[in-house]
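Handoff note, outgoing to incoming analyst
You'll be picking up this chain. Sequence as last confirmed:
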Amino acid sequence: MAVAFARTRQVALTLSPATAADVMVPNPVSLRADASIREALALLTDKGFGAAPVIDDAGRPVGVLSRGDLLIHEREHTHYIPNRPSFFYDEHVGHLPTGFEEEDVDPTSVRDVMTPAIFSVAPDTPITKVVREMVSLHVHRLFVVDDAGTLIGVISTMDLLKRLQPAE
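Most recent structure output, in case you need it:
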C-alpha cells in the first residue's frame, strides 16, 4: 500500500524584536512561602497553572512551586488518621455521627515543598537572550524582576510561541 504525502512549504518563524517586558505577563499570581499546600493546590488547579512563583513579604521571588512538586510531596506524604477519641463514635453504630467528617490536614507549607531556585531576567533583556536562557536552563518559564529584585512579570514558553510570526 503506497501512501502519498502532500509537500508543504516550510515557513520559517521568527520572534519580532522585543524585550522581556514586551512579552511578559505582568503582575503574575504568586504564592506566599507560608501558604499551605492545600491553598497552593487550590490556586494552581483553579487557575489552570502548572506552576507559580513563591514570594517573600517584600514581593521578591524565593522559589517556584509546580504541580510536579505537589505530586512528589503527595507521593511521599503518608496519610495516617490517628485513633479517634471515643466521643467521636456513635455507641450504637461505631462511626462518626451524620454530618461529621474527618480530615487529615497536611501542615506542610509551600516553603517546604517549593523548588528554591528562581531563574529571572531584567525587563530590558532581549527576547533572544530570554529564549537562550529558557533552553539552556531547561525551564518552561522565566521570571522578570526589577532592579530591587521584586517580581514584576513572568514569561512562559506559551507566551513566546504566541509571538512567533512567519518570516518575511
